[in-house]
Design brief:
It is built from 14 helices and no strands. By secondary structure, it is mostly helical. α6 (about 100-125) crosses α13 and α11 (about 255-280) runs antiparallel to α12 (about 295-315). The chain is elongated. The chain starts with a helix and ends with a helix. It binds iron/sulfur cluster (2 copies). One iron/sulfur cluster binds near residues 16, 20, 61, 63 and 73.
Length: about 375
Amino acid sequence: MHGTKILEEADRLMTVCNSCRYCEGLCAVFPAMEMRRSFSDGDLNYLANLCHACGACYTDCQFSPPHEYNVNVPKTLAVARADSWAAYAWPRAFSSVFARNGLAISIIAALSVAAFIFGFAAFVDPQVLFGIHTGPGAFYKLMPHNAMAALFGAALLYAIVALVMGVRAFWRDIGEPVGLLAEPGSLWQAMKDAGQLRYLDGGGVGCVNEDERPNDRRKLFHHLTFYGFLLCFAATSVATLYHYLIAREAPYPWWDLPVVLGTLGGIGLLIGPAGLLMEKSRRDPVLVDQPRSGMDVAFIAMLFLTGATGIALLLWRDSAAMGLLLALHLGVVFSLFITMPYGKFVHGIYRYVALVRYAKERRQMGHT
Ligand code: SF4
Ligand code: SF4
């Protein structure tokens, strides 16, 4: 007996697949499944988070609908995966945010942007909000640097604590001792697998779309999004070091490291999420957890808006629009930070942890 109906269904499918084993070369899910004869709730949540949703095992399956076995591994694991994220959420009271995620993220983003605009106008002279400010320290005429660093530092710290607590719950659920999460060989292998999206290639042919012609576009757009996000994070980190270590204040000239990193990252966050949305619209609905599509769209939209508002701020930072653009950018980034533990962002964290366990299991079995 399992905790939910979807886990019952996942158990049924994994039992069928374990007898068939036709898909064992497609990804990490099937080899991990073959290491087991029965499946606990934790095992199924582990397999669900190991799945990269490429769709290949549905297209290749001789038992997919209309066959009476009704085997649909991608969709079943997608539903189980999203359920697991809600179950691991910390604090538990916020797990309901996963249910109506698109609406929740939209409201939080709109309130954050409004709060920054109102805050700038209320606490600073509204003339300053619409004035032209240039040179080092221009942004801090609207909000002191220390206040900005404290607010965003607190939001990021909260997100990190909530994510760590979620990972702890996941690691316990799959039955692993906490100490093993720090095994360097498995951490490194998982980092390589995640960094290359090794298992998002449908066994080498790519992701499957509505027309059943596999391609690598989803992987490409995901790479642009992921590395764009990392570059933007690096840009902010370098700017913070500039501020506190060598007393250089933003905004910086276009050739300076924080601007170069931020521009490249911002371009990645424009092209990557736009491409992911396009690919999403082309996916065969039978493969996806449709009721929770809003969660995917909200997260992709937030990443796109982060890139778009950042680039807009760079382009018009010397104009009278700078105050509003800064409020928009800060509002979007703030809402992205505080909603990270309660939306699609967590897929990267749990998938990485599942890959760590997979690397560990393979090493124990004598594979590299
Ligand atoms: S998805 Fe279908 S073809 Fe693939 S292992 Fe399972 S039952 Fe076999
Ligand atoms: S959808 Fe792709 S990643 Fe997921 S189980 Fe099937 S083949 Fe593996």
